[in-house]
Design goal:
5 strands; 5-stranded antiparallel beta sheet; single chain; alpha+beta; Nuclear Transport Factor 2, Chain: A
Length: 112
């Protein structure tokens, strides 16, 4: 029984450490805004779209190690300049490390 309790405590501690590495950040955080703005621009390039970045609604970033890259999840407000319609989009951006280019792994329009 004691062994089970120790395993449970270790498991809960590890889960909390993993969850604490994903932090919700201020929507004015420069890295979050940069990731959101970059995601809209990258989506435009890949899809010949004309979205105009407005602002970040919500943003999270998760780092693997200090100085190493990370993953950004952002919800942005952007306007389709062709249709003159503003929508929310969810984007996931992977930054392998600070010396490599970012990668857009997901970009989706959220339901209105």
């Amino acid at each position: 029984m004691l062994w089970f309790k120790i395993q449970l405590i270790v498991l809960v501690t590890l889960a909390l450490v993993c969850l604490s590495s994903a932090k919700s950040h201020d929507t004015d955080d420069g890295n979050i805004v940069m990731a959101g703005r970059w995601a809209v621009g990258e989506y435009n390039k890949k899809n010949q779209a004309n979205l105009v970045f407005e602002y970040v609604i919500k943003g999270d970033m998760q780092y693997r190690y200090k100085g190493d890259g990370g993953k950004y999840t952002v919800i942005v407000q952007a306007t389709d300049s062709d249709k003159k319609v503003s929508n929310q989009y969810s984007a996931k951006v992977h930054e392998p490390d600070i010396s490599q280019d970012m990668i857009l792994t997901s970009f989706q329009k959220l339901s209105s």
